[in-house]
User: What shape does this take?
Amino acid sequence: MEQVKTQTSDARPGFDATVTGKRAECDGGHAIPGTRFAGRQEFTGTLTGEYVDHGEPAWRWYLLTDLTRKPDGYLDDSVWCESGNLFILDEGKS
Assistant: This one.
C-alpha cells in the first residue's frame, strides 16, 4: 500500500528586501454579497517585503500595510496583493 502525504497548505512564506518600504497600489476583485458578481477593489499602502507563494508555478502574494486607500467598509490595516496586480509607485525607504 502506498502512503500519500497530505498537506494542509502549500503556502511558502518568504521575504523580499528589495520591495520593503515601497509605496504601491494593488487592485483585485471581491464578491458582491447577495449576487453572483464581483466588484473591483483598490488599495494603496506600503510593502513590508513579506510574501507567500502558493502552487507550482508559484502564485506570489505580497503584504501591503499602512493603507491610505481601501474600499469603504474594509476594516483591516493590511491586505495581501497578488503580484500581477501590484504596482510600485515610488522607491520608498532605502
